[in-house]
């Protein structure tokens, strides 16, 4: 009896894993799914039938370009949500992902891309209309168009090329990209993508994009950098004319709590030291920010910043009243 229950539990977990894979990508071949699940293609076919029995519309294509894909459902799958509950859930997720709900953006977007797969067509217009009535006020993340967010999320999920107009060098140019990941900072949404015209990885702000579209042309994913790290380093350092690197005598956890993620990258050295990487148009600003952290530090790069430390130190000393300078002599 115990063995039978264990087999059932293993099958259930495998079927749920299969469902998650089908929600992550537009199309999977049978051998790909078999390899990911550690089973035979025959077992994959059986598990697909189990999903269909539960109400999930899994389509299968034969021949070159064929495979398994999760279609839009005519009925909601067994989430036990009626139409009103589904609409309320999706509108709330759109508000959390596209607006400024701190900490909720990426999780909301992941949930949206999963629900988008099985949202019945009859509900799409109503969800879009209600989402347009949701606004926010106050600080937080710069709002973006929820439809742009979803269009790019689908392109990342389905591995299809995307295009958009983007300002660069005082002009607006059309960009063709292979979208990889959407990244939410404390202030904005970014897309990490491979720029086909520049033949390199780039990050783009969603709030600066216009005329966003996704093609049906699929691409084979390239080896990619870590999305969050790449975008953070770009926002905090690469976009500026000058970059600086410091060794700070405090733990990485302590310094991260003092610096916004968009202002600097903090890397752990050991339990009591960390590296801080930041950029600016004027390195004096970076130097003063590190000074105001209140920890001992050393300049690692660039070498000319060491001389700036000496100049600023002398300037600070000269700011003392004359009587204090005479006492020190």
Please supply descriptive tags for the structure shown above:
Arc Repressor Mutant, subunit A; four-stranded antiparallel beta sheet; alpha+beta; SH3 type barrels; Alpha-Beta Plaits; 3 domains; five-stranded antiparallel beta sheet; 329 residues; 12 helices
Outline the secondary-structure elements.
Blueprint: H1 2-24, H2 30-37, H3 41-53, E1 58-60, E2 68-70, H4 83-98, H5 105-118, H6 121-131, H7 146-158, E3 160-168, E4 171-184, E5 189-195, E6 200-205, E7 210-218, H8 227-238, E8 242-248, H9 252-258, E9 265-270, E10 273-280, H10 283-291, E11 297-301, H11 304-318, H12 322-328
Antiparallel strand pairs: 1-2, 3-4, 3-7, 4-5, 5-6, 8-10, 8-11, 9-10
Q: Structural class given helices, strands, pairing?
A: alpha+beta
Look at the structure and give the mean pLDDT: 78
CATH third-level topology of the largest domain? SH3 type barrels
List unreliable stretches of 5+ residues: 132-139
Name of the level-1 CATH class of the largest domain: Mainly Beta
Description:
The termini are far apart. The chain is built from twelve helices and eleven strands. Strand 4 and strand 5 form a beta hairpin. About 2% of the residues have low confidence. The protein is elongated. The strands form three sheets. Strands 6-5-4-3-7 form a five-stranded antiparallel β-sheet. A four-stranded antiparallel β-sheet has the order 9-10-8-11. A two-stranded antiparallel sheet has the order 1-2. The protein is α+β, with helices and mostly antiparallel strands and 329 residues long. The chain has three domains: 69 residues, Winged helix-like DNA-binding domain superfamily/Winged helix DNA-binding domain (Arc Repressor Mutant, subunit A, Orthogonal Bundle), CATH 1.10.10.10; 85 residues, SH3 type barrels (Roll), CATH 2.30.30; 79 residues, Alpha-Beta Plaits.
């Amino acid at each position: 009896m115990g063995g039978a229950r264990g087999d059932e539990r293993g099958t259930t977990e495998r079927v749920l894993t299969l469902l998650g894979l089908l929600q992550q990508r537009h199309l999977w071949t049978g051998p790909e799914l078999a390899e990911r699940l550690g089973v035979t293609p025959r077992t994959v076919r059986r598990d697909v039938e189990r999903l269909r029995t539960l109400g999930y519309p899994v389509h299968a294509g034969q021949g070159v370009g064929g495979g398994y894909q999760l279609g839009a459902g005519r009925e909601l799958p067994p989430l036990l949500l009626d139409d009103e509950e589904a609409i309320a859930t999706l509108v709330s997720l759109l508000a959390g992902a596209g607006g400024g709900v701190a900490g909720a953006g990426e999780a909301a977007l992941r949930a949206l891309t999963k629900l988008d797969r099985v949202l019945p067509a009859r509900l799409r217009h109503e969800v879009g209309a209600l989402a347009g009535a949701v606004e926010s006020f106050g600080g937080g993340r710069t709002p973006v168009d929820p439809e742009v967010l979803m269009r790019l999320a689908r392109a990342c999920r389905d591995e299809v090329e995307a295009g958009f107009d983007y300002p660069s060098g005082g002009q607006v140019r059309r960009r063709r990209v292979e979208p990889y990941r959407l990244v939410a900072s404390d202030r904005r949404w970014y897309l990490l993508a491979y720029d086909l015209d520049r033949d390199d990885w780039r990050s783009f702000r969603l709030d600066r994009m216009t005329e966003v579209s996704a093609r049906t042309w699929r691409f084979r994913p390239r080896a990619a950098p870590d999305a969050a790290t790449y975008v953070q380093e770009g926002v905090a350092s690469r976009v500026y004319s000058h970059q600086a690197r410091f060794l700070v005598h405090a733990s990485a956890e302590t310094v991260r709590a003092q610096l916004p993620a968009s202002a600097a990258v903090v890397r752990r050295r050991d339990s009591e030291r960390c590296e801080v990487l930041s950029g600016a148009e004027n390195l004096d600003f970076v130097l003063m920010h590190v000074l105001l952290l209140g920890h001992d530090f050393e300049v690692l790069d660039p070498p000319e910043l060491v001389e700036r430390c000496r100049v600023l130190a002398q300037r600070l000393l000269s700011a003392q009243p004359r009587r204090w300078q005479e006492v020190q002599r």
